[in-house]
Amino acid sequence: MADSATQPASDATYFRKGFGLKDEVEGELAAAYDGRLVDLLKERDYALTSGDVTVRLAREFGFCYGVERAVDYAYQTRRKFPERQIFLAGEIIHNPHINQRLRDLGVIFLEHHAASNERSFDFSGVRPQDVVILPAFGVTVADFETLRAIGCVMVDTTCGSVLNVWKRVERYAREGFTALIHGKYYHEETRATASQVLKYPGGQYLVVRDMAEARVICDFIEGTRTADEIRERFAHAASIGFDPERDLRRVGVANQTTMLARESLAIGAEVGAAMTRARGEAYTAENFRTFDTICSATQDRQDAVQELLEEPLDAMVVIGGYNSSNTISLAALSAERVPTYHIEDAGCIDVESRTIHHRVNMGKEDVATPGWLGRDGAVRVGVTAGASTPNNKIADAVARIFATRGIDPASIGG
After folding, report:
1. Parallel, antiparallel or unpaired: strands 53-57 and 379-385
2. Which of 189, 270, 336, 352 is catalytic?
3. In sequence order, what are the residues at sequence separation of 6 or more whose Cβ sits closer than 8 angstroms to the Cβ of residue 354?
4. 185 vs 201: CA distance, rounded Å
5. How far apart are CA 104 and CA 96, in angstroms?
6. DSSP codes of every residue in 84-153
7. What pLDDT, on the 0 to 100 scale, is given for residue 361?
8. How far is residue 9's CA from residue 21's CA, in Å, rounded to a whole number?
9. Catalytic residue check, 60
10. Which of 66, 174, 327, 367 could cross-link with 159 by S-S, CB 3.0 to 4.6 Å?
11. Domains of the chain by range and CATH?
12. Long-range CB contacts (within 8 A, 24+) of 350-359
C-alpha cells in the first residue's frame, strides 16, 4: 500500500525540501534567534563565571536539526508566496515565541474542529490557491488526505525522526502487530503516528503514557486484569474497536520521539518480559517487537543533561515551552538530582524580587519560588533548553540569572 502521508499530490503542490531560499532567509533567522551569551558560553567551554555566579550550559541544547528545518521552511514559504494566504496546521513547534513570530509574518494558525473526537483540523477556510504548512510533528493521514483533496500547496516540515517512527508502526500494522506507543495520546506527533497504523486493514494501536500504564498492559497479558478493565482505562488512547484479547497477542513497541528515552526502552523490555512469562520465549520471539525510536537529538540532549548533572550544581534551569514534551523530559531528568526550574522564557525570572516562576512535574499552574538563588555566596546554575528553544531565549534567561545577583550581563565576557 502506498504511503499516502508522504506521497505528493503533484510536484507543483507538495514540497518537503524547501524552495532553495535558505540564503535569503538566513539573515532574518539569525537576527530573530541568535544569542550573544550562548555564543560566549560555547567559546568558554560551556561555562561562564562572573562575581559569585557560575552558569554551566549543557553541551547539547536548544534547536535540533528538525526544528531548524521546520522554522527555516516556514520562513522560506512566506518568502516564496508573498501574496498568498498561508496557513499552519497547529503550531510549527512547541515554542510560543516562534509561533508568535510566524503570526507576525501573516501566517494563519488552523484550529481543530471543536466537535471532532479525532481532533482533525478545520480546513473549511482553505482554498486551492492557498498554502498550508504541515508542522514538525506531522499531521494525521486523514488531515493530509483532506488537504490533498482541496488541492492547495502543502509545505511539509515533518521531522525525519518522526517519519522513521511512522515507517516502524506501518510495518507493525502490515505484519499484524498492534503498535504499543509510548507517548501522550493527545500530542500532535502521537496522533499522527497512530493514524499511520489505520491505513492497513485491521491495524490497531494503544498509547501508554508511562511505565505505570505499561504495567497495566503487562498485567492483562499475564492474566491479572480483564479485557474490560483495559477497554475502560484506555478508551481515549486506543484505536476504535480495540479488542485486548485479540490485539495484545502480537505487539510492537514504538514511541513518541521526544519521550524520556530510558523509560521507552524500559517499557519495551517490561512488555516483552510479561509476554515471556505468560506464553514463553518462543512465543515472544515470534510475536513481540521493540525498537528505540527516540530521535538522536532528544537522546543527545538527555545525555548532555546527565553529564552536566555530574558537576556540582545548586540549581538547574530548563528553558522551553510548557507544552514541549522534550523540554518536560529534560526537566524530569534534572529534578531527580538538583532543584529544577522549568521556565518558558526569561520573563519567568523576576530580577527585582529574586523570584522565579516555573512549572513542576507537568503542572498546569505557575509556581513562584522566591530567593531561588539565595542572596550571597557562590552559586552554580546549570542551564539547558528544549529542542524548540532558540538561542536568543536561552541567552535572555542566562542574562537574568546573572542579573538576579546584581551582575550586569553586558559586562560579561568583555
Report:
1. parallel
2. 189
3. 370, 371, 372, 373, 375, 404
4. 22
5. 12
6. S-EEEES-SSS-HHHHHHHHHTTPEEE-B-TT-TT--B--TT--TTSEEEEPTT---HHHHHHHHHHT-E
7. 83
8. 22
9. no
10. 66
11. 34-64+297-407 (3.40.1010.20), 65-158 (3.40.50.11270), 161-294 (3.40.1010.20)
12. 351/400, 351/403, 351/404, 354/404, 356/317, 359/322, 359/331
- Which helix (H) or strand (E) segment is 207 a member of? strand 205-208
* Residue 116 vs residue 162, higher pLDDT: 162
Sign of CA dihedral 229, 233, 236, 239: negative
Strands 53-57, 47-50: pairing kind: antiparallel
In the block, cell 516502524 appears at 168
User: Rounded to an integer, what distance in angstroms lies between the CA atom of residue 199 and that of residue 145?
Assistant: 12
DSSP 238: B
Strand residues in 280-326 grouped as ranges (E): 288-290, 315-319
Chain segment 77-131, per-residue pLDDT in tens: 999 999 999 999 999 999 999 999 999 999 999 998 765 555 789 999 999 999 9
Grid coordinates standing for 349?
525570572
Nearest Cα residue to 321 out of 56, 75, 60, 93: 93
Strand segments, DSSP code E, in 271-326 are 288-290, 315-319
b/e sequence 14-42, b meaning 16+ C-beta within 10 Å: bbbebeebeeebeeebeeebebbbbeebe
Residue keyed to cell 550573544: 36
